[in-house]
Design a protein that fits this description.
121 residues, alpha/beta, 4-stranded mixed β-sheet, 8 strands, Glyoxalase_6, VOC family protein, Glyas_Bleomycin-R_OHBP_Dase
Length: 121
């Protein structure tokens, strides 16, 4: 078994209050196919990469950068033009976070409050 992977990484699952809404947000941002069921949704790229969203009752969004409650994870997505990408994600329902610690990326909150970054490199 040496040199063989134990598992493959087809998806990441994100907790949220409304999987349908969050899948549609990320589907529009990434131009990925959206698939929705009763308590779960996913977005999938043509090449197979997938992000799933599951409904959690009593969901509490993370607070960044204080970590109370902690973000636990965030997505970095690569863009060609920060200004154009910022305008596009704001139009989709994201919120730009007031704390911006870098110059080659910008921090936003998705509609459920998860931090994500638009990055140029």
């Amino acid at each position: 078994m040496a040199g063989m992977a134990i598992a493959r990484f087809p998806s990441i699952v994100i907790d949220c209050p409304d999987p349908d809404a969050l899948a549609r947000f990320y589907g529009a941002m990434l131009d990925w196919k959206v698939d929705v069921s009763s308590d779960r949704a996913e977005v999938r790229a043509e090449y197979g990469q997938c992000i799933s969203f599951q409904q959690v009752n009593g969901y509490t969004p993370p607070v960044w950068p204080t970590q109370e409650p902690p973000q636990q994870m965030h997505l970095d997505v690569i863009v060609d033009d920060l200004d154009a990408a910022e305008a596009a994600v704001l139009d989709l329902g994201a919120t730009k976070h007031p704390h911006q610690p870098g110059t080659s990326f910008r921090v936003f909150l998705d509609p459920a409050g998860h931090p994500f970054c638009l990055c140029v490199n």
